[in-house]
Amino acid sequence: RCEEIIRASDRVDALSIGGEDYAAELGAPADAGAAAIAHLRYTAVTVATAYGIAAIDTPHTNVKDEAGLRAEAVFARAIGFSGKYAIHPSQVAVVNDAFTPSRDEIAQARRIVDAAAVAAKSRRGSVALDGRMIDAPIVDRARRLLALADAIAAPAPVKRGR
User: Fold this and answer.
1) N or C terminus: which one in the chain shows less Cβ crowding within 10 Å?
2) Exactly one of 13, 65, 97, 135 is catalytic; which is it?
3) In percent, how much of the chain has pLDDT > 90?
4) Alpha carbon separation from 64 to 59, 81, 82, 135 (Å, rounded)
């Protein structure tokens, strides 16, 4: 019912999943982990993207399992999640690292945007870069990555008390 949830209010900014709740409701064993919630993850990302809102992945409940958290966060980013819940301060850096574009990703995104700009001047809708076709969806993804990198690099606004 992801769409129903999103349409319930114009104030919905993100869609998140409760992986443990979902797996428990399914009666999945505690060690089933990602397999039990795979369908939910893909559904949430797909619907959130269709509605133009963020998708936030379920928390990794073993706060001592940094390697598992990192793998889960990298996977969540790879399938389209915008972030992942952290339930312990020790998880914040790992999650931030997984969702922050690397220097190589930023450099490649800049090359893509630059190549697209050159192609646009020649009225071409696509261009080859390093043997790979670059067209509108790839350029859009590169621009979004650069916007994210810029937002992360920008100083956080100072919050004032009441």
Assistant:
1) C
2) 135
3) 71
4) 13, 23, 23, 43
Q: How far is 36 from 56, CA to CA, in rounded Å? A: 17
* Mean pLDDT computed over every residue of the chain: 91
- The residue written with tokens 């001047």 in the block is 121
The pTM for the full model equals 0.83
Question: E-assigned strands of the chain?
Answer: 14-16, 54-57, 83-84, 127-129, 132-134
Note if 31 is an active site residue: no
> What are 72-89's pLDDT values in tens digits?
999 999 999 999 999 999
Phi-psi region of 91 (alpha: psi -120 to 50; beta: other; left: phi over 0): alpha
